Amino acid sequence: MRVLSVASECVPLIKTGGLADVVGALPAALASQKIEMRVMIPAYKGILESLVGAEEVWADWNLYGEHARLMKGEVAGMTVLALDAPHLYHRAGGPYADASGDYWDNPERFAALSWAAAAVARDGTGEGWKPDILHAHDWQAGLAPAYLRYHGNGGVKSVLTVHNIAFQGVTGGDRLNSLRLPWHAWNPEHAEYHGNLSTLKVGLATADAITTVSPTYAEELMRPEFGMGLEGVIAARANDLTGILNGVDEATWSPENDPEISPYSARNLKPKAENRARLIEEFGLGDVPGPLAVVVSRLTWQKGIDLLADALPAFVAAGGGLVLLGSGEPHLETAMKAAAERWPERVGVRIGYDEALSHRMFAGGDAVLVPSRFEPCGLTQMYGLKYGTVPVVAATGGLNDTVIGASPASLSANAATGISFHPVDGIALAGALRQLLHLYQDRGTWTRLVKRAMKADVSWDGPAAAYHALYRSLLA
Ligand code: ADP
Fold first, then answer.
1. Fewer Cβ atoms within 10 A, N terminus or C terminus of the chain?
2. Ligand 1 atom 26: the closest Cα is on which residue?
3. Which residues line ligand 1 (CB under 6 A)?
Protein backbone atom coordinates (compact mmCIF):
# COMPACT_ATOMS: atom_id res chain seq x y z
CA MET A 1 0.00 0.00 0.00
CA ARG A 2 1.23 3.51 -0.82
CA VAL A 3 0.36 6.59 1.18
CA LEU A 4 1.18 10.23 0.51
CA SER A 5 1.38 12.14 3.78
CA VAL A 6 0.99 15.92 3.37
CA ALA A 7 1.95 18.39 6.07
CA SER A 8 3.62 21.72 6.77
CA GLU A 9 6.25 20.29 9.16
CA CYS A 10 8.29 17.11 9.46
CA VAL A 11 11.11 16.12 11.81
CA PRO A 12 14.09 16.31 11.21
CA LEU A 13 13.60 18.97 8.53
CA ILE A 14 11.31 21.55 10.10
CA LYS A 15 9.51 21.60 13.45
CA THR A 16 7.47 24.04 15.48
CA GLY A 17 5.45 21.48 17.47
CA GLY A 18 4.29 17.91 17.98
CA LEU A 19 2.82 17.76 14.45
CA ALA A 20 6.35 17.57 13.06
CA ASP A 21 7.29 14.70 15.40
CA VAL A 22 4.29 12.69 14.29
CA VAL A 23 4.68 13.34 10.56
CA GLY A 24 8.36 12.42 10.79
CA ALA A 25 7.70 9.23 12.78
CA LEU A 26 4.82 7.82 10.72
CA PRO A 27 6.80 6.55 7.69
CA ALA A 28 9.02 4.26 9.79
CA ALA A 29 6.11 3.22 12.00
CA LEU A 30 4.00 2.30 8.97
CA ALA A 31 6.86 0.55 7.18
CA SER A 32 6.43 -2.21 9.77
CA GLN A 33 2.90 -2.62 8.35
CA LYS A 34 4.32 -2.86 4.81
CA ILE A 35 3.04 0.59 3.94
CA GLU A 36 5.21 2.83 1.79
CA MET A 37 4.62 6.37 2.99
CA ARG A 38 6.15 9.43 1.36
CA VAL A 39 5.99 12.81 3.07
CA MET A 40 5.26 15.99 1.16
CA ILE A 41 6.19 19.34 2.71
CA PRO A 42 7.04 22.81 1.42
CA ALA A 43 10.69 23.34 0.53
CA TYR A 44 11.31 26.14 3.01
CA LYS A 45 14.72 27.76 2.83
CA GLY A 46 17.44 25.17 3.41
CA ILE A 47 15.23 22.08 3.08
CA LEU A 48 16.47 21.02 -0.36
CA GLU A 49 20.06 21.15 0.90
CA SER A 50 19.14 18.57 3.57
CA LEU A 51 17.76 16.07 1.07
CA VAL A 52 20.05 13.36 -0.26
CA GLY A 53 19.81 12.64 -3.99
CA ALA A 54 17.20 15.30 -4.70
CA GLU A 55 15.63 15.03 -8.17
CA GLU A 56 12.65 16.65 -9.84
CA VAL A 57 9.59 14.39 -10.09
CA TRP A 58 6.75 16.81 -10.93
CA ALA A 59 6.35 20.44 -12.00
CA ASP A 60 3.68 23.08 -12.42
CA TRP A 61 4.44 26.08 -14.64
CA ASN A 62 2.10 28.37 -12.79
CA LEU A 63 1.51 27.72 -9.13
CA TYR A 64 0.44 31.12 -7.81
CA GLY A 65 2.22 33.04 -10.50
CA GLU A 66 5.50 31.20 -10.77
CA HIS A 67 7.08 27.90 -11.58
CA ALA A 68 7.05 25.19 -8.90
CA ARG A 69 8.57 21.76 -8.88
CA LEU A 70 8.48 18.75 -6.60
CA MET A 71 11.85 17.42 -5.50
CA LYS A 72 12.16 13.86 -4.27
CA GLY A 73 14.98 13.08 -1.85
CA GLU A 74 15.88 11.04 1.21
CA VAL A 75 16.36 12.10 4.80
CA ALA A 76 16.59 9.96 7.95
CA GLY A 77 15.47 6.88 6.02
CA MET A 78 12.32 8.47 4.63
CA THR A 79 11.40 9.66 1.16
CA VAL A 80 10.43 13.31 1.14
CA LEU A 81 8.70 15.21 -1.65
CA ALA A 82 9.57 18.87 -1.15
CA LEU A 83 7.53 21.45 -3.04
CA ASP A 84 10.11 23.87 -4.36
CA ALA A 85 8.43 27.23 -4.92
CA PRO A 86 10.74 29.97 -3.61
CA HIS A 87 8.13 32.69 -4.23
CA LEU A 88 5.95 30.95 -1.61
CA TYR A 89 8.36 29.34 0.82
CA HIS A 90 11.64 31.24 0.95
CA ARG A 91 10.92 33.66 3.79
CA ALA A 92 13.12 35.24 6.40
CA GLY A 93 11.09 34.01 9.40
CA GLY A 94 9.58 30.67 10.40
CA PRO A 95 7.23 28.47 8.38
CA TYR A 96 4.13 30.55 9.15
CA ALA A 97 5.21 33.94 10.39
CA ASP A 98 8.02 36.38 10.96
CA ALA A 99 8.52 39.08 13.58
CA SER A 100 5.72 41.18 12.12
CA GLY A 101 3.14 38.37 12.23
CA ASP A 102 1.60 35.71 10.00
CA TYR A 103 2.51 35.89 6.30
CA TRP A 104 -0.36 37.55 4.44
CA ASP A 105 -0.43 34.80 1.82
CA ASN A 106 -0.48 31.76 4.15
CA PRO A 107 -3.80 30.57 2.69
CA GLU A 108 -2.29 30.50 -0.82
CA ARG A 109 1.06 29.11 0.39
CA PHE A 110 -0.64 26.05 1.85
CA ALA A 111 -3.26 25.84 -0.87
CA ALA A 112 -0.31 25.39 -3.23
CA LEU A 113 0.99 22.51 -1.11
CA SER A 114 -2.46 20.92 -1.06
CA TRP A 115 -2.92 21.47 -4.79
CA ALA A 116 0.37 19.79 -5.66
CA ALA A 117 -0.42 16.93 -3.28
CA ALA A 118 -3.84 16.35 -4.83
CA ALA A 119 -2.33 16.48 -8.33
CA VAL A 120 0.34 13.93 -7.43
CA ALA A 121 -2.25 11.71 -5.73
CA ARG A 122 -4.54 11.86 -8.75
CA ASP A 123 -1.98 11.45 -11.52
CA GLY A 124 1.19 10.15 -9.86
CA THR A 125 4.69 11.62 -10.01
CA GLY A 126 6.78 11.76 -13.16
CA GLU A 127 8.49 8.50 -12.20
CA GLY A 128 5.12 6.78 -11.89
CA TRP A 129 4.64 6.73 -8.11
CA LYS A 130 0.95 7.02 -7.27
CA PRO A 131 -0.49 6.60 -3.77
CA ASP A 132 -3.61 4.66 -2.77
CA ILE A 133 -4.29 7.09 0.08
CA LEU A 134 -3.65 10.79 0.56
CA HIS A 135 -3.20 11.48 4.27
CA ALA A 136 -3.49 15.21 5.04
CA HIS A 137 -2.55 16.83 8.36
CA ASP A 138 -4.25 19.88 9.90
CA TRP A 139 -5.50 23.04 8.19
CA GLN A 140 -2.38 23.49 6.10
CA ALA A 141 -3.27 20.35 4.13
CA GLY A 142 -7.03 20.64 4.60
CA LEU A 143 -7.62 21.67 1.00
CA ALA A 144 -6.01 18.50 -0.39
CA PRO A 145 -9.04 16.25 0.31
CA ALA A 146 -11.25 19.07 -0.98
CA TYR A 147 -9.37 19.25 -4.29
CA LEU A 148 -9.72 15.48 -4.69
CA ARG A 149 -13.45 15.79 -4.04
CA TYR A 150 -14.08 18.77 -6.30
CA HIS A 151 -11.59 18.17 -9.09
CA GLY A 152 -11.53 14.34 -9.31
CA ASN A 153 -9.70 11.86 -7.10
CA GLY A 154 -8.28 9.37 -9.61
CA GLY A 155 -9.36 6.53 -7.32
CA VAL A 156 -7.42 7.85 -4.34
CA LYS A 157 -9.02 7.93 -0.87
CA SER A 158 -8.30 10.74 1.58
CA VAL A 159 -7.76 10.93 5.33
CA LEU A 160 -7.53 14.16 7.31
CA THR A 161 -5.93 14.13 10.75
CA VAL A 162 -6.71 16.88 13.24
CA HIS A 163 -3.68 17.47 15.46
CA ASN A 164 -5.16 20.56 17.11
CA ILE A 165 -8.59 22.03 16.35
CA ALA A 166 -7.46 25.44 17.63
CA PHE A 167 -5.78 26.05 14.27
CA GLN A 168 -8.50 26.20 11.62
CA GLY A 169 -7.04 27.98 8.60
CA VAL A 170 -9.65 30.74 8.65
CA THR A 171 -9.46 33.43 5.99
CA GLY A 172 -11.78 35.75 4.10
CA GLY A 173 -14.51 34.26 1.94
CA ASP A 174 -13.30 36.47 -0.91
CA ARG A 175 -10.40 34.04 -1.27
CA LEU A 176 -12.63 31.22 -2.54
CA ASN A 177 -11.40 31.71 -6.11
CA SER A 178 -7.83 32.31 -5.16
CA LEU A 179 -7.86 29.04 -3.20
CA ARG A 180 -9.16 27.23 -6.27
CA LEU A 181 -12.41 26.14 -4.69
CA PRO A 182 -15.57 25.93 -6.83
CA TRP A 183 -18.58 28.13 -6.13
CA HIS A 184 -20.62 25.18 -4.88
CA ALA A 185 -18.11 24.73 -2.04
CA TRP A 186 -19.36 28.02 -0.64
CA ASN A 187 -22.00 26.75 1.76
CA PRO A 188 -22.09 26.13 5.53
CA GLU A 189 -21.76 22.35 5.04
CA HIS A 190 -18.41 22.78 3.31
CA ALA A 191 -16.09 25.80 3.15
CA GLU A 192 -18.16 28.64 4.57
CA TYR A 193 -17.56 29.35 8.23
CA HIS A 194 -19.50 32.25 9.74
CA GLY A 195 -18.95 34.31 6.62
CA ASN A 196 -15.30 33.31 6.37
CA LEU A 197 -13.59 30.35 4.79
CA SER A 198 -11.88 27.60 6.79
CA THR A 199 -9.50 25.23 5.06
CA LEU A 200 -9.79 22.80 7.98
CA LYS A 201 -13.56 22.81 7.79
CA VAL A 202 -13.69 22.07 4.09
CA GLY A 203 -11.20 19.27 4.64
CA LEU A 204 -13.33 17.82 7.42
CA ALA A 205 -16.35 17.96 5.15
CA THR A 206 -14.70 16.33 2.15
CA ALA A 207 -12.13 13.79 3.44
CA ASP A 208 -13.17 10.14 3.17
CA ALA A 209 -12.11 9.61 6.79
CA ILE A 210 -11.16 11.85 9.69
CA THR A 211 -8.80 10.98 12.47
CA THR A 212 -7.55 12.77 15.50
CA VAL A 213 -4.72 11.92 17.82
CA SER A 214 -6.50 10.29 20.76
CA PRO A 215 -9.83 8.58 21.44
CA THR A 216 -10.75 11.05 24.19
CA TYR A 217 -10.03 14.07 21.95
CA ALA A 218 -12.22 12.46 19.26
CA GLU A 219 -15.12 12.51 21.74
CA GLU A 220 -14.26 15.98 23.00
CA LEU A 221 -14.18 17.45 19.48
CA MET A 222 -17.91 16.86 19.14
CA ARG A 223 -18.61 19.10 22.15
CA PRO A 224 -18.72 22.90 22.08
CA GLU A 225 -16.13 23.28 24.89
CA PHE A 226 -13.50 21.62 22.70
CA GLY A 227 -14.75 21.78 19.10
CA MET A 228 -14.09 25.53 18.87
CA GLY A 229 -16.94 26.08 16.45
CA LEU A 230 -16.32 22.97 14.36
CA GLU A 231 -18.12 20.55 16.72
CA GLY A 232 -21.18 20.39 14.44
CA VAL A 233 -19.17 19.52 11.34
CA ILE A 234 -17.30 16.85 13.23
CA ALA A 235 -20.39 15.42 14.94
CA ALA A 236 -22.05 15.14 11.53
CA ARG A 237 -19.16 12.87 10.53
CA ALA A 238 -18.98 10.90 13.77
CA ASN A 239 -19.16 7.62 11.84
CA ASP A 240 -16.06 8.52 9.86
CA LEU A 241 -14.04 9.73 12.85
CA THR A 242 -11.37 7.66 14.64
CA GLY A 243 -9.05 8.59 17.51
CA ILE A 244 -5.58 7.08 17.09
CA LEU A 245 -2.91 7.92 19.65
CA ASN A 246 0.53 9.07 18.65
CA GLY A 247 3.52 7.00 19.65
CA VAL A 248 7.00 7.88 20.80
CA ASP A 249 9.93 7.64 18.43
CA GLU A 250 11.96 5.18 20.47
CA ALA A 251 15.10 5.72 18.43
CA THR A 252 15.24 9.27 19.83
CA TRP A 253 13.54 8.78 23.18
CA SER A 254 14.90 5.87 25.24
CA PRO A 255 16.63 6.26 28.60
CA GLU A 256 18.72 3.14 27.87
CA ASN A 257 20.11 4.73 24.76
CA ASP A 258 20.20 8.52 24.91
CA PRO A 259 23.55 10.23 24.25
CA GLU A 260 22.49 13.29 26.29
CA ILE A 261 22.24 11.45 29.62
CA SER A 262 23.66 8.78 31.89
CA PRO A 263 21.69 5.83 30.53
CA TYR A 264 19.37 3.90 32.82
CA SER A 265 16.50 1.43 32.77
CA ALA A 266 13.69 0.25 35.03
CA ARG A 267 16.08 -2.42 36.32
CA ASN A 268 18.91 0.00 36.96
CA LEU A 269 17.53 3.33 38.13
CA LYS A 270 20.70 4.51 39.89
CA PRO A 271 21.95 6.67 36.99
CA LYS A 272 18.62 8.52 37.05
CA ALA A 273 19.70 10.05 40.36
CA GLU A 274 22.94 11.23 38.70
CA ASN A 275 20.92 12.81 35.92
CA ARG A 276 18.81 14.54 38.57
CA ALA A 277 21.86 15.92 40.37
CA ARG A 278 23.33 17.16 37.10
CA LEU A 279 20.09 18.83 36.09
CA ILE A 280 19.88 20.62 39.43
CA GLU A 281 23.42 21.82 38.88
CA GLU A 282 22.76 22.87 35.29
CA PHE A 283 19.90 25.09 36.45
CA GLY A 284 21.90 26.35 39.42
CA LEU A 285 19.38 25.22 42.02
CA GLY A 286 20.16 24.37 45.62
CA ASP A 287 18.96 21.40 47.60
CA VAL A 288 15.57 20.08 46.43
CA PRO A 289 14.31 17.73 49.14
CA GLY A 290 10.99 16.97 47.43
CA PRO A 291 10.20 15.94 43.87
CA LEU A 292 11.88 17.80 41.03
CA ALA A 293 9.21 18.60 38.46
CA VAL A 294 10.00 19.44 34.83
CA VAL A 295 7.98 21.30 32.22
CA VAL A 296 8.93 21.33 28.52
CA SER A 297 6.22 23.21 26.73
CA ARG A 298 4.96 26.06 24.68
CA LEU A 299 4.02 28.68 27.27
CA THR A 300 0.39 29.27 26.37
CA TRP A 301 -3.07 29.31 27.89
CA GLN A 302 -3.75 25.91 26.33
CA LYS A 303 -0.88 24.41 28.31
CA GLY A 304 -2.22 25.72 31.66
CA ILE A 305 1.02 27.52 32.50
CA ASP A 306 -0.93 30.22 34.36
CA LEU A 307 -2.41 27.53 36.62
CA LEU A 308 1.09 26.28 37.30
CA ALA A 309 2.28 29.76 38.28
CA ASP A 310 -0.59 29.95 40.81
CA ALA A 311 0.03 26.49 42.28
CA LEU A 312 3.80 26.90 42.52
CA PRO A 313 4.20 28.71 45.89
CA ALA A 314 2.65 25.89 47.95
CA PHE A 315 4.61 23.23 46.01
CA VAL A 316 7.92 25.01 46.50
CA ALA A 317 7.17 25.71 50.18
CA ALA A 318 6.60 21.98 50.69
CA GLY A 319 10.05 21.13 49.28
CA GLY A 320 9.30 20.65 45.58
CA GLY A 321 11.45 22.01 42.79
CA LEU A 322 10.69 22.99 39.21
CA VAL A 323 12.75 23.38 36.06
CA LEU A 324 10.96 24.76 33.04
CA LEU A 325 11.97 25.06 29.38
CA GLY A 326 9.74 26.83 26.91
CA SER A 327 8.70 30.01 25.22
CA GLY A 328 5.45 31.61 24.27
CA GLU A 329 3.09 34.29 25.57
CA PRO A 330 5.09 37.15 27.10
CA HIS A 331 3.05 37.41 30.33
CA LEU A 332 3.62 33.70 31.01
CA GLU A 333 7.34 33.98 30.31
CA THR A 334 7.42 36.91 32.74
CA ALA A 335 5.49 35.00 35.41
CA MET A 336 7.82 32.02 35.20
CA LYS A 337 10.95 34.15 35.23
CA ALA A 338 9.59 35.94 38.30
CA ALA A 339 9.14 32.57 40.03
CA ALA A 340 12.77 31.68 39.29
CA GLU A 341 13.90 35.00 40.77
CA ARG A 342 11.74 34.51 43.85
CA TRP A 343 12.97 30.95 44.56
CA PRO A 344 16.40 30.68 42.92
CA GLU A 345 17.19 27.56 44.96
CA ARG A 346 14.10 25.71 43.84
CA VAL A 347 12.92 27.05 40.49
CA GLY A 348 14.90 27.28 37.26
CA VAL A 349 13.55 28.69 33.99
CA ARG A 350 14.98 28.69 30.47
CA ILE A 351 13.13 30.68 27.86
CA GLY A 352 13.85 29.20 24.45
CA TYR A 353 13.85 25.99 22.48
CA ASP A 354 16.50 23.38 23.22
CA GLU A 355 16.04 19.77 22.13
CA ALA A 356 19.17 18.45 23.90
CA LEU A 357 18.29 20.13 27.19
CA SER A 358 14.78 18.68 26.97
CA HIS A 359 16.32 15.17 26.98
CA ARG A 360 18.37 15.99 30.08
CA MET A 361 15.22 17.32 31.75
CA PHE A 362 13.11 14.22 31.06
CA ALA A 363 15.97 12.09 32.40
CA GLY A 364 16.72 14.19 35.48
CA GLY A 365 13.22 15.09 36.61
CA ASP A 366 11.13 13.10 39.06
CA ALA A 367 7.86 14.21 37.48
CA VAL A 368 6.74 15.98 34.32
CA LEU A 369 3.85 18.43 34.66
CA VAL A 370 1.28 18.75 31.87
CA PRO A 371 -1.66 20.83 33.19
CA SER A 372 -3.16 21.44 29.72
CA ARG A 373 -6.69 22.78 29.39
CA PHE A 374 -6.97 20.70 26.26
CA GLU A 375 -4.43 18.34 24.78
CA PRO A 376 -5.19 16.45 21.55
CA CYS A 377 -2.54 13.82 22.33
CA GLY A 378 0.51 15.34 23.99
CA LEU A 379 3.99 13.92 23.70
CA THR A 380 5.80 15.09 26.82
CA GLN A 381 3.73 12.91 29.19
CA MET A 382 4.73 9.94 27.03
CA TYR A 383 8.41 10.90 27.19
CA GLY A 384 7.84 11.09 30.97
CA LEU A 385 6.48 7.54 31.00
CA LYS A 386 9.45 6.21 29.02
CA TYR A 387 11.95 7.99 31.24
CA GLY A 388 10.27 7.05 34.53
CA THR A 389 9.53 10.72 35.12
CA VAL A 390 6.06 10.42 36.54
CA PRO A 391 3.53 12.39 34.49
CA VAL A 392 1.20 14.70 36.40
CA VAL A 393 -1.53 15.46 33.89
CA ALA A 394 -4.90 17.06 33.42
CA ALA A 395 -7.45 14.35 32.57
CA THR A 396 -8.21 15.63 29.09
CA GLY A 397 -7.63 14.44 25.51
CA GLY A 398 -4.63 12.19 24.98
CA LEU A 399 -3.40 12.82 28.52
CA ASN A 400 -6.47 10.93 29.68
CA ASP A 401 -5.73 8.05 27.31
CA THR A 402 -2.03 7.61 28.09
CA VAL A 403 -1.76 8.05 31.87
CA ILE A 404 -3.47 5.93 34.51
CA GLY A 405 -3.87 8.20 37.52
CA ALA A 406 -2.77 7.08 40.98
CA SER A 407 -5.59 6.19 43.36
CA PRO A 408 -5.67 3.71 46.23
CA ALA A 409 -7.18 1.15 43.85
CA SER A 410 -4.83 1.72 40.88
CA LEU A 411 -1.80 1.79 43.17
CA SER A 412 -2.70 -1.44 44.91
CA ALA A 413 -3.27 -3.11 41.54
CA ASN A 414 0.09 -1.68 40.37
CA ALA A 415 -1.73 -0.15 37.39
CA ALA A 416 -1.06 3.54 38.08
CA THR A 417 1.44 5.22 35.75
CA GLY A 418 1.08 8.83 36.90
CA ILE A 419 -1.08 11.42 38.61
CA SER A 420 -4.19 12.73 36.95
CA PHE A 421 -6.46 15.61 37.96
CA HIS A 422 -9.82 17.02 36.97
CA PRO A 423 -11.29 19.59 36.45
CA VAL A 424 -8.46 21.58 34.89
CA ASP A 425 -8.18 24.42 37.39
CA GLY A 426 -5.74 25.72 39.97
CA ILE A 427 -7.39 23.92 42.88
CA ALA A 428 -7.24 20.50 41.23
CA LEU A 429 -3.65 21.10 40.07
CA ALA A 430 -2.65 22.09 43.60
CA GLY A 431 -4.25 18.85 44.80
CA ALA A 432 -2.28 16.85 42.23
CA LEU A 433 0.97 18.51 43.35
CA ARG A 434 0.14 17.62 46.98
CA GLN A 435 -0.41 14.04 45.86
CA LEU A 436 2.96 14.15 44.08
CA LEU A 437 4.72 15.40 47.23
CA HIS A 438 3.00 12.74 49.28
CA LEU A 439 3.73 9.81 46.94
CA TYR A 440 7.34 10.92 46.56
CA GLN A 441 7.86 10.63 50.33
CA ASP A 442 6.77 6.98 50.29
CA ARG A 443 9.87 5.56 48.62
CA GLY A 444 8.54 2.04 48.04
CA THR A 445 5.34 3.20 46.39
CA TRP A 446 7.22 5.84 44.42
CA THR A 447 9.73 3.39 42.96
CA ARG A 448 6.92 1.04 42.00
CA LEU A 449 5.10 3.89 40.28
CA VAL A 450 8.26 4.90 38.38
CA LYS A 451 8.88 1.35 37.20
CA ARG A 452 5.27 0.84 36.22
CA ALA A 453 5.34 4.08 34.22
CA MET A 454 8.40 2.86 32.32
CA LYS A 455 6.53 -0.29 31.33
CA ALA A 456 3.66 1.61 29.69
CA ASP A 457 3.46 0.94 25.96
CA VAL A 458 3.94 4.27 24.20
CA SER A 459 5.41 2.75 21.04
CA TRP A 460 4.10 3.27 17.54
CA ASP A 461 3.13 -0.43 17.20
CA GLY A 462 -0.52 -0.04 18.21
CA PRO A 463 -1.08 3.26 16.39
CA ALA A 464 0.57 1.95 13.19
CA ALA A 465 -1.71 -1.07 13.17
CA ALA A 466 -4.72 1.22 13.70
CA TYR A 467 -3.76 3.44 10.73
CA HIS A 468 -3.22 0.36 8.62
CA ALA A 469 -6.69 -0.93 9.51
CA LEU A 470 -8.23 2.43 8.67
CA TYR A 471 -6.49 2.65 5.28
CA ARG A 472 -7.56 -0.90 4.47
CA SER A 473 -11.18 -0.16 5.34
CA LEU A 474 -11.13 2.81 2.95
CA LEU A 475 -9.75 0.74 0.10
CA ALA A 476 -12.08 -2.19 0.67
P1 ADP B 1 2.31 20.81 21.06
O2 ADP B 1 2.47 20.16 19.72
O3 ADP B 1 0.91 21.24 21.36
O4 ADP B 1 3.29 21.92 21.32
P5 ADP B 1 3.14 18.23 22.14
O6 ADP B 1 3.32 17.76 23.56
O7 ADP B 1 2.30 17.38 21.25
O8 ADP B 1 2.61 19.72 22.20
O9 ADP B 1 4.56 18.34 21.43
C10 ADP B 1 5.50 19.29 21.80
C11 ADP B 1 6.85 18.82 21.32
O12 ADP B 1 7.77 19.92 21.30
C13 ADP B 1 7.49 17.79 22.24
O14 ADP B 1 8.36 16.99 21.48
C15 ADP B 1 8.29 18.68 23.22
O16 ADP B 1 9.33 17.98 23.85
C17 ADP B 1 8.80 19.73 22.28
N18 ADP B 1 9.05 21.03 22.90
C19 ADP B 1 8.16 21.97 23.28
N20 ADP B 1 8.77 23.07 23.74
C21 ADP B 1 10.10 22.82 23.68
C22 ADP B 1 11.28 23.58 24.03
N23 ADP B 1 11.19 24.81 24.52
N24 ADP B 1 12.47 23.00 23.81
C25 ADP B 1 12.57 21.74 23.30
N26 ADP B 1 11.51 20.99 22.96
C27 ADP B 1 10.29 21.52 23.14
1. C
2. 355
3. 17-18, 21, 296-298, 325-327, 353-355, 358, 377-380
Q: How far is the CA of 165 from the centre of ligand 1 (A)?
A: 17
Find out whether 80 and 38 touch, Cβ atoms under 8 Å: yes
**How far apart, in Å, are the Cα atoms of 286 and each of 225, 279, 319, 474?**
42, 11, 11, 57
Domains of the chain are: 2-247+461-475 (3.40.50.2000), 270-455 (3.40.50.2000)
Mapped onto helix, strand or coil, the DSSP state of residue 471 is helix
Task: State which of 379, 389, 458 you would mutate to test the pocket of ligand 1, scoring each by most atoms of that ligand within 8 A of its C-beta.
Answer: 379
Whose Cα sits closest to atom 20 in ligand 1? 297
Q: Which atom of ligand 1 is nearest to the CA of 164?
A: 3
